[in-house]
Amino acid sequence: MNRIQTTVFLSIVLIGSTLAWSQDIAPTPPDKKAKCPVCGMFVARYPDWVAQVAIADGTTDYFDGAKDMFKYLFNLGQYRPGKTKTDIASIFVTEYYDMQAIDARQAFFVVGSDVYGPMGHELIPFHTRSDAQAFLTDHKGKQVLTFAEVTPYVIRRLDP
Are residues 155 and 70 in contact, defined by beta-carbon separation less than 8 angstroms? Predict the structure, then answer.
């Protein structure tokens, strides 16, 4: 399987598995000791960028941005051995304008803007496509994507 076929396959798997996810667990703020499982940064230091994945067993992983959250989701077995996407109860990101936790699966993400997160280039989340489009125009963004449109390829391109 070549790189394009692999990316398409992973995207289809992710889109299919989003149908199994349910939003049963409300967002919670990270405590001071919560570390991003992807990069190891202390998440509470970056409240404007917090993302979280709540597992049905009651545990939650926190991230210092949507980019690391997607890295985690694309490699769940590495970060949460024994867990699958069907074990995920909720996924939240922090909306850029109002700083509220929103369902990541319903969010719109701007890629390639001149706004950087704690880990550099970042996906910038919004409630609505119109807010995302306005931000894209104002901040030299390249594209607006839905949750299902974010692929491993998109994430790899964010890191230099």
Answer: yes
Supply the pTM of this predicted model: 0.84
Report the interhelical angle of 3-18 vs 66-74 (nearest 10°).
100
Sign of the C-alpha dihedral computed for residues 111, 115, 120 and 124 taken in this order: negative
Q: Where are the domains of the chain?
A: 3-158
Q: Going from the first residue of the chain to its last (160 residues), give the mean pLDDT of each consecutive group of 10, the final group possibly shorter.
A: 48 45 75 97 97 96 98 97 96 97 98 96 98 98 98 94
Closest among 48, 72, 60, 54 to 125, alpha carbons compared: 48
**Order of all β-strands in the sheet with 143-146:** 124-126, 108-111, 143-146
Percent of the chain past pLDDT 70, that is, above it, reads 85
Position 160 scores a pLDDT of: 79
Q: Please name which of 20, 15, 155 lies closest in space to residue 90, comparing C-alpha atoms.
A: 20
SS3 at position 64: coil
Kindly report, residue by residue over 85-127, the tens digit of the pLDDT: 999 999 999 999 999 999 999 999 999 999 999 999 999 999 9
Rounded Cα–Cα distance for residues 33 and 124 (Å):
24
